[in-house]
Automatic annotation (TrEMBL):
The active site is at R314, D605. Involved in the glycolate utilization. Catalyzes the condensation and subsequent hydrolysis of acetyl-coenzyme A (acetyl-CoA) and glyoxylate to form malate and CoA. Its main location: cytoplasm. PANTHER family: MALATE SYNTHASE G. Residues 566-646 form the Malate synthase C-terminal domain. The modification Cysteine sulfenic acid (-SOH) is found at C591. One of its GO terms (molecular function) is magnesium ion binding. Residues 311-538 form the Malate synthase TIM barrel domain. It comes from Sphingomonas pseudosanguinis. This is Malate synthase G. Monomer. Acetyl-CoA binds at V113, R120, F121, S250, R287, P515. Mg(2+) binds at E406, D434. The gene is glcB.
Length: 701
């Protein structure tokens, strides 16, 4: 470790910061380290105290339930007020985050999330501002079940074109129908809303509807355009307006090496230099960031549109510490504080390096802060960001915050949490996956939970989703900040997504999470079909759903599950858990498409793991299942997961002697120690087992 102002810093991190992130940033190296040491000195102890407060509150709640305390919402409200879990509501107020890019404040459209440790995916995500509607419809099950990928399937192609023409009829109505158009220019002249036509590019004609752009690509020499009577080769949709580059639940970052890899990718995105070369279909491809797009308006004026999604960076929460930096007393530095400093340092370079590649147009820095518990933790983040602004010489509130509404104490005190960051908040978002894990953990001792699949139908979750929108609107989010909804966690189920995810804009959410660029393009169609601004106006006068409903835990009304039902529940949880953990521990993959028990690939990350682990821990605690039954399920499912990963050369089996391996042991620990993990989080155990494996491998080498 290298000494910097009393801090012991991993040499590779010193090199990264002093040779790459700081030069050209406008921040002096010496001043940076002095600032880092000062911020850590001022905030680390308070950070630890906030975590201790979480534990103290949880202990009171555990005691209440163990003593048979009432579970109904009214009793919960009284008890939680008494222990200080519920805080007084602020007087009505309106957020004032200052200068915020339109993509966040005023437009409604998809939000993509992408793991920061994967450069190839990151580039794809940044470039997912625009996506091919034809490709998204043709290449997925959106209209027809997945087909043969070799060659062009005429029937499938025609179905795509029909769907897309219907879409144009709905979004850009003309005299007659787009189905009958033979000359796109002539059709444009008959647009019902002539202002929808904005101009031309070299490739097509540009339109805008509900604030989102649509480019009809006309090319009679293109294989598709050649066979189309209007010469339409594709429809390009503005898709991921914003993207969250994730340093949290979708990455496995346990040491300095991993953290630097994430920070370096963030730097490459901000300075415009990130590139990735990879083999695809037997050919080497190099991917770089897309340029902005150039158009000419009907009056001859030239203009450009962003070619890339507006990027947020998700920092880690307040829980973990990092071995990359030790404080003068030898303790590891809180990772969230280090993330805030380093990601802001990098983000404030925006526009200094390659102006045409800049991220935002307002200079704002967009940080997503996950897993905060209640207003005091939001206030802590606010003051931390103040301190980071001061140390980097940034104007006050240039660092914006997106608050994940994904812990119960935050949902229950949402207005007060927003108030604590009211001058920098740019989103609230229902992270229902973490929120479900926290629901189970908070009420761990209240009784056995309903089955995992029934959780979505619980009263608390409906109240949570409603209150998030209602409170956001009451705090003035419309036109100022995003109200967001959660992840579509089935990346291959695009027909289902098209059928169901329209509910998010319908609920008045101005954005919702998608797992891939393709999903972004398909989800964008929902924002054309639904006018979010109108939905927000309609919901603005609703009464906020009662807190009592939010506070009613999803404890099963009875335990009359059959043995078969219990076994299915166990197997399902054990399978997803093992399938995710084995890649995390052995290969450092923080987010993957894990085939479920029926071989349907589901997006699993740390939040979905938290749910499975907590659910199993809860059923174990209440005797719905025995330890032996859990072990038997893990053994059965280890064999299944091994078979599902049979063609991965890096995979290490977990069945047989694989039970002694770190991955299997980590999976067991997540369940058997689940009830006592802080708030049910999985990162302490995941980090411990992964670090142990990395150390063993280093020693062996
Ligand atoms: C609760 C929460 O916190 S949710 C937030 C955390 N979750 C996430 O960030 C999920 C992000 N999504 C992903 O990481 C991926 O989609 C996964 C892991 C779920 C699936 O990955 P894969 O199985 O490799 O996807 P699949 O084979 O279907 O598609 C791969 C292609 O799609 C692209 N792709 C898939 N997901 C993404 C993404 N999120 N961003 C950018 N590109 C993506 C890849 O770049 C690749 O294209 P390429 O070959 O041209 O590079
Ligand atoms: O971060 C998102 C969630 O659902 O958790
Ligand atoms: Mg989450």
């Amino acid at each position: 470790m290298i000494d910097r102002h009393g801090l012991s810093v991993a040499p590779a991190l010193v090199r990264f910061l002093e040779e790459r992130a700081l030069p050209g940033s406008g921040v002096d190296i010496n001043r940076f380290w002095a600032g880092m040491a000062d911020v850590l000195a001022r905030f680390a102890a308070e950070n630890a105290a906030l975590l201790a407060r979480r534990d103290a509150l949880q202990a009171r709640i555990d005691d209440w339930y163990r003593a048979g305390g009432a579970q109904d919402g009214a009793a919960q409200r009284a008890f939680l007020t008494e222990i200080g879990y519920l805080t007084p509501e602020p007087e009505p107020f309106t957020i004032a985050p200052g200068s915020v890019d339109d993509e966040v404040a005023r437009l409604a459209g998809p939000q993509l999330v992408v793991p920061m440790l994967n450069a190839r995916f990151l580039l794809n995500a940044a470039n997912a501002r625009w996506g091919s509607l034809y490709d998204a419809l043709y290449g997925t099950d959106a209209i027809l079940p997945p087909g043969d990928t070799r060659g062009y399937d005429m029937e499938r192609g025609e179905a795509v074109i029909r769907w897309a023409r219907d879409f144009l009829d709905d979004t850009l109505p003309i005299a007659g129908s787009w189905h009958d158009v033979t000359d796109v220019e002539a059709a444009v002249a008959t647009l019902r809303d002539p202002d929808a036509f904005l101009g031309r590019s070299e490739t097509g004609l540009l339109f805008r509807h509900h604030g989102l752009h649509i480019e009809i690509v006309v090319d009679r020499s293109h294989p598709i355009g050649r066979t189309d009577r209007a010469g339409i080769a594709d429809i390009s949709l503005e898709s991921a307006l914003t993207t969250i580059c994730d340093l949290e639940d979708s990455v496995a970052a346990v040491d300095a090496e991993d953290k630097i890899a994430g920070y370096a990718n963030w730097l490459g995105l901000i300075d415009g230099t990130l590139s990735a070369s990879f083999d695809k279909g037997g050919r080497t491809q190099t991917r770089t960031l897309a340029e902005d797009r150039h158009y000419t308006a009907p009056d001859g004026t030239a203009f450009t549109l962003p070619g890339r999604s507006l990027l947020f960076v998700r920092n880690v929460g307040h829980l973990m510490t990092t071995p990359a930096i030790r404080m003068p007393d030898g303790r590891e530095a809180p990772e969230g504080i280090v993330d805030a400093i380093v990601t802001s340092l990098i983000a404030q370079r925006d526009g200094r390096d390659r102006e045409p590649m800049r991220n935002g147009r307002t200079g704002s820095i967009y940080i997503v802060k996950p897993k905060m518990h209640g207003p005091e933790e939001a206030d802590f983040a606010n003051r931390l960001f103040d301190a980071v602004e001061d140390m980097l010489g940034l104007t006050r509130h240039r660092i914006k915050i997106g608050v994940m509404d994904e812990e119960r104490r935050t949902s229950a005190n949402l207005a007060a949490c927003i108030h604590a960051v009211k001058d920098r908040i740019v989103f609230i978002n229902t992270g229902f996956l973490d929120r479900t894990g926290d629901e189970i953990h908070t009420a761990m001792h209240a009784g056995p939970m309903v089955r995992k699949a029934d959780m979505k139908a619980s009263d608390w979750i409906a109240a949570y989703e409603d209150r998030n929108v209602q409170i956001g609107l009451a705090c003035g989010f419309a036109g100022r900040a995003q109200i967001g909804k959660g992840m579509w966690a089935a990346p291959d189920r695009m027909a289902d997504m098209l059928a169901q995810k329209g509910a998010h804009p319908m609920a008045g959410a101005s954005t919702a999470w998608v797992p891939s660029p393709t999903a972004a393009t398909l989800h964008a169609t929902h924002y054309h079909r639904i006018d979010v601004a109108a939905r927000q106006r309609a919901r603005a006068s609703e009464a906020v759903a009662p807190l009592e409903r939010l506070l009613t835990p999803p404890v099963a009304a009875s335990r009359d599950w059959s043995e078969a039902e219990i076994r299915v529940e166990l197997d399902n949880n054990a399978q997803g858990l093992l399938g995710y953990v084995v890649r995390w521990i052995d290969q450092g993959i923080g987010c993957s498409k894990v085939p479920d028990i029926h071989d349907v690939g589901l997006m699993e990350d740390r939040a979905t793991l938290r749910i499975s682990a907590q659910h199993m821990a809860n059923w174990l605690l209440h005797g719905v299942v025995t330890a032996e039954e859990i072990d038997a399920a893990l053994t059965r499912m280890a064999a299944k997961v091994d078979a599902q990963n049979g063609d991965d050369p890096l995979y290490r089996p977990m069945s047989g002697s694989g039970r002694d391996g770190l991955a299997f042991q980590a999976a067991r620990a997540l369940i058997f120690e689940g009830a006592v993990q802080p708030n049910g989080y999985t990162e302490p155990l995941l980090h411990r087992y992964r670090l142990s494996g990395k150390t063993d491998r280093r020693d062996a080498a």
